[in-house]
């Protein structure tokens, strides 16, 4: 490491000091129990990755209605919180830090994964032109019901309760998932939100649900322990906005004013990266004043560049962290990386989950 290597210089994020800028992105792995209990394997999985500057957990549903795929974990029962506590204790025992990502899928769901075969809920009654993963494999999303005023209140109560349970579970903070076509983004983006009440129309109205979610989460967490994830390009799950520069500038400004722990932005969707969105991402960046996490297909060289230039404070890594539990050390030593195996990304057992090798000291010296 050189003195100039900012990837490995500690940084303050609110009241937490991150020892490095190599953070673990939220990663859906579909290995939880059908009832949303995190698996026993999740304890070593997260423990192995405790050297990340910060771990963001996989997306975790705040309620049974917030679920959209098989075998994703929840944070809506005391039993789930107790299991998560084993995970946070393991990470803390290794000297790590961990935030939980609070998730409600909205219309990206299917009646077969919802309680009593209910229809998904959303900002809209329009079905998503997207698929989700169920016991029968990939299927089209079910037709949603638009939340009414009572439904919105109920959903906000679910956010409040999940935030409380996240504290019981011993997390260091929470990330509110407002990206990738899920419920909060269904409110934010005008290609989806077709409401005529105070939650639709102007961007002020469309971001009301996000603000209210942050308010209820804020009943249990100080602002500097709450982060938000956005994907302004709207490339996932039938998202999209007619004027992302104008609308997301307002959203960034609102979040900036709340003095949150951080803003976490999916800047390009792996697989659909044609560089087109970079100008928008750069233009929006100026509207957020605070800790900024960049995400989306970064390698170590680009991470160094974006941090050194001051455009980002930290970078979150997904696939590299799946395959390399000791990713910061490997980056620091410029060591070879294990290749991730896409066949074991979603679902399965220990294979491709907790069996990726650490760099052994012999290799570390050799490299
Ligand atoms: C991959 C598969 C299923 C869900 C996201 C939570 O995109 C996800 C997700 C990713 O944010």
UniProtKB/TrEMBL annotation:
For this protein, the parts annotated as crossing the membrane are none
Q: Which segments of the protein form a coiled coil according to its record?
A: none
Show where the NADH:flavin oxidoreductase/NADH oxidase N-terminal domain sits. Answer: 7-332
Give one Pfam family, short name only: Oxidored_FMN
Q: What is this protein's name?
A: Alkene reductase
The source organism is Loktanella gaetbuli
